Amino acid sequence: MALPALLINAVALAVACTGAALLFVTRLRERRAMAKLTAQSEERAIDQPMLFLDVRTERAHRQAYRIGLACLGLALLTSWISTHL
Question: Does the entry feature the keyword Membrane, yes or no (predicted)?
């Protein structure tokens, strides 16, 4: 494997690790938010309306998932390109 291909693979690895870490952290944040929401819902009376996550939180989670998946896709594409050098 030539040096340019090795460097490109190193960049792909860095991008993939960043994307995977973002997906992992987003999943943890989502689980914590749902656990907090569940705890708040259990304290409420039955006749009160259900609690839901606010729109900004859901949008932030979706955006983080999109960015994380885009990072993984970019890493895959970059790695594939490096094999053709």
Answer: yes
